[in-house]
Amino acid sequence: MNRGTSLYIPTGKYAMLPPALSVDIASLNVNQKVEALSFGFTLAADGTLGNCIVIPSLICVDSKHTYEEVDGILGSSIPGDSESAETTKKIKTLWAMIERHADYRERSGAITFHLPQGEPKVRDKTGSNPVVTLKVMKDTPSFAMIRESMVIAGSIAGDFCAKHKIPMPFRTQGSRQAIFSVLGDIADMSGTLSPDAYYARELERLSVLYGSETNFSPAAHHGLGLKAYIQISSPLRRFGDLIAHMQLKSFLRGNEPLSFTSQELIECFGTASHGLKSAKSVESRAQKYWQFFYLKQQGIKRYTGEYIRHLNGNLGFILLVDIGIQVVSRLPGNARLGSHYTVEIKEADARAGRVVCNVVEELSLQA
């Protein structure tokens, strides 16, 4: 496996597995029975999980909804139509549970934070002058619902495998106990951060966390506020998730020996790591290229930006908050992280990876 992941770039999707599997046999298509791995639990009033089970299952999806549809449902009242009312009730109940568990994780030390991300899509890819559209991905309730559901599945899998001593690719992150005082200082950096800071403040909080990594014995993931965690929700698009599914299903079937020993997992992930890094690099570079191509299409235009990270000298990264694109700009000598500016994009060269922009004026968001 040279890539080890599905590749998502603005010109299209390149699946990890053949379409016969990823689109047909193993995909969650409507009214099609498909084998799956299901995670069951009860949720206490304080958001903790209980009575957790992991079982092979046969499921059938009766309907699908877009993120926008679910956001609309969560913001609406329960309709009179009985079928619509039942769907709305289920989604609202699930959202209430999701919020409760997310609150529990935050009390356990988790840090949840997402920058707005401009996702470009390329139309008419064969033409000499492709058209690029941009969708700004923000942390709406529907996205949070999917994200937290995946975290819950990974948490149940992690605890289950730790309990039964199943060799697995656990995702871990070092303890923050030694840096709690630093986090406290960052929460009140009035002398360093602008009073208007939002994304810059959150990035500063994240910057003191240790990076997450893959280990083959259980350990806490403090960034998620969990005792154990395994990425297992996406076996059709991530190599590690597929391996975790194979290993867990092997255990549940009572197979002896299991699909992989600890040493075999280490060797397997070592072989795949280069391809995974290369794929992530391709995704990142392709996204940046087409973001800058989009800016070029827009011509000279002004945006609201937040100064989120220092580069060197008087250069820094500015997040154009309305379109979720980061650019490097020269900043005033008295610039503070978190300051907001009107930024004028003068020129964008996607091939060179360069944007020419000017800070026009500082904005004050304080009432």
Q: Which oligomeric state applies?
A: single chain
Average the pLDDT over all residues and give the rounded result: 89
The arrangement of helices and strands along the chain is: EEHEEHHEEHEHHEHHEEEEE
Helix content: 25-40%
Radius of gyration: 23 Å
Largest sheet: 5 strands, antiparallel
Structural class: alpha+beta
Task: Measure the end-to-end span.
Answer: 55 Å
Number of strands: 13
Measured by DSSP, the beta-strand proportion falls in 25-35%
Tally of individual helices: 8
Please give the order of strands in the largest beta sheet. 11-10-9-12-13
Spans of at least 5 consecutive residues with low confidence: 186-190
Shape type: globular
Short description:
By secondary structure, the chain is α+β, with helices and mostly antiparallel strands.
Q: Can you put this structure into words, describing what you see?
A:
This protein starts with 6 loop residues before the first strand and ends with a strand. The protein has eight helices and 13 strands. With 367 residues, the protein is an alpha+beta fold. Helices cover 36% and strands 25% of the residues. Strand 5 and strand 6 (131-137) form a beta hairpin. The longest helix has 37 residues, at 262-298. It is globular. The protein has a five-stranded antiparallel beta sheet with strand order 11-10-9-12-13.
List the helices and strands and how they pair.
Blueprint: E1 7-9, E2 12-14, H1 19-25, E3 33-43, E4 49-60, H2 67-74, H3 82-107, E5 117-123, E6 131-137, H4 141-163, E7 170-172, H5 180-186, H6 199-207, E8 213-215, H7 239-252, H8 262-298, E9 301-312, E10 315-320, E11 325-330, E12 340-349, E13 354-363
Antiparallel strand pairs: 1-2, 3-4, 5-6, 7-8, 9-10, 9-12, 10-11, 12-13
Helix pairs in contact: 3-4
